[in-house]
Amino acid sequence: MRKHRQRRNRLARTLVAAASAVSLSLLAGCVGEGVDLGPASSDRLVRAAIGGAPDQLDPHQTSSYFSFQVLENVYDTLVEPDENLQMQPALAESWDISEDQLTWTFHLREGVTFHDGSDFTAEDVVYSYTRIIDEELANAWRLATVEEVTATGEYTVEIGVSQPTPNLLTAIGGFKGMAIVSEDNAESGDIAQHPIGTGPFSFRDSRDGDYIWLESNPDYWGGAPAVDGVQFSYISEPTTAIAALRSGEVDWTDSVPPQQVEALSRDQAIALDTLVSTDYWYLAMNQDREPWSDERVRQAVAYAVDRDSIAQVVGYGTAVVNQLAIPETSPWYAAYDRYSLDPGQAQELMDEAGVSEASMDLMVSTDYPETVTAAQVIADNLAAIGIDVSIRTLDMATWLDDQDQGEFDALIMGWLGNLDPDDYYYAQHHSEGPSNAQGYANPDVDELLDAGRQELDEDRRRELYAEAATLIADDVSYLYLYNPSVIQAHAQRLTGYEMRSDRAVRFRDVNLEEDA
Amino acid sequence: MSQLAPGAGAASGPAPETGTPGSRRASAWRLLLSSPTGAAGLVVLAVLILAAVTARWLAPYGPNDIDVPNALAPPSGRNWLGTDELGRDVFSRVLLAAEVSLQVALVSVAIALVVGVTFGVIAGYAGGWLDLVVMRSADVLFAFPILLLALAIVAIQGPAISSVMIAIGVVYTPIFARVARASTLSLRQEPYVQAARTMGVPTWQILLRHILPGISGPVTVQTSISLAFAILSEAALSFLGLGVQPPNPSWGRMLFDAQGFLASAWWMAVFPGLAILVTVLAFNLVGDAVRDVLDPRQRSMIESRRKR
User: Fold this and answer.
1) Model's pTM, two decimal places?
2) Which of A138, A461, A483, B20 is the least buried, fewest Cβ under 10 Å from its Cβ?
3) How many residue contacts between A and B have a Cβ separation below 8 Å?
């Protein structure tokens, strides 16, 4: 997963060594534009409003959720997660694993063509993965154990790994950042503006800051979509997006203010869905600074924070309080409820640590308004145990910079689009983890996380991660706050749309009913 | 000539304006109060300033007392102006934000006034290349939309109340420079200034004793109007998240927070909005009245009306 909506790829690279899917920007704070319908709007064109413009359309380079909302419909991966986030065949029809677990053989689908008419073959897979690894692109870390990718036949690919890698399928199929691209398209550089994939829709046209227009791919291997195409327009202001949806200017949007969910769900003209997502939001304290290096102080903070209030004000009933990262809906969920709101206990821990008062520089981002809201509640909570919180609201680029420099006492942020438990914990809490900005180091946790990467038995693996997560939460490496919901709304005439907890937006199975 | 200069300078320089400052100001105050809109503006301002200064004692709740179960409560006996999305008392926050707003406005306009008038007077009096450089620089600053320039400055300095003050100060500096320069240009040709110059009064003394008092009228008017715009600018910057940092209250920030709740909690937007409206209106009314009083032509009209 990538850290939330970075808009600039340059920044992305610093973070990315993390876990699974997609960086996202539900409410990114850019200035809202009007809704321009762009291409001659036909009745059969799905008009989707997303929160902002993609920075670029190269799936291997971008880390913007806005880009992936579009690219989900343009590209394919070898395997892809179904609605339960289990990996299913896509461009690969089947696969075998060697006895020693070190060689994976993928049998590719035959007769698939790229949007430019060229055939999809094993060479494209080799090219795509080699590009990611050799150019050290944003997602190279996902293929860290991959030693070689070879085409053993026109439609057979072998992936050799250095150690058993039980989550290889998630690594290569978790999201469209691992898409199979066309070599010509990528080498010419056109891919950033004019991507060519094998997916259900092909890129037709775009206008900067205005729209992206996708056309149905009649030769799609999964069957041609029923609609003519999809047009993505950008509306950052949720209330504007909802107004556009109500007036029929757009058919679909994920720019929905949580406080309006209740009112909107009573609106007959709109279909609104909420689904607990695989994202989580957390507070992290800088363990290289006093007094946050003392785990008793961090635990005191964990006891003092009122998670229920935070979930209420950020989600209005759509966010689910969680003391670990993985939501209850995930097969990897582990129960944990050590911290209850207990100012008395918090005060005791502070006394034990010998800290009577402290000031906390808490860093949040205007691009994620939920962090600003949560920070205000936390500031109020912590005042009760003698911690004076000063909130610093930054734009995401500065926020990331300061995080990397360690210029903070504490920060609030979220990780989005996680699938495998390795996505949730490794990069953030392994002492060598690339996203361990808080400076956490616990040899026991390192050992468990390393073991989890290689464990093939699923039950045993679940136990390893549950154990690691418990230690992480006990030590308050991250102070987990809640899992938000995916909230999406669409017009009733748009049928067949399935909302997904990993926030992938797929329009291939939708249809538009004639207006009555 | 040059040897005579100090003595001559000290003895001379009977500028008409400085001669009778007390009497002039007194009558200006009286005239100001006699204008109904000016008096109304002044009264509102006085109340506002009093409220801002005593806000911390007047406010029934702390500005950051979060009470989530009581969030979004409509105006009632308990919370006169309702509560916001975190359950904070809107009345207390509006009141305390007045302190912040006025503080920002005063400091930023003071910066603009001091810097702008200094440069304007020097440029206007010196003329030549100095005038050219100073005023073209002011033109460059002017060419930027005000908010854009302020945004850039805050972006560089990082969001904080001090950056907002500096940003607004910088943005309004060229306006003061222009006003001061224009008035200086005409004063420079006045016989008493020419006379002082001929007698060798040092330049700094001419500027201080003859020019500055002479341009105080237009500058005063500009000050009161700029105060109004400074308050608007602060609200705009805070609305954009670059001004006063949460959780500290600010009218602009409160409006921003209210956006998502317009349909369900009108009080969150209406009261901070009203506060901005009333304050800006009051400063503008006072500014207009001051202009009428200090403009000689307008002034004689008012005076003749009163005599009748």
Assistant:
1) 0.77
2) B20
3) 60
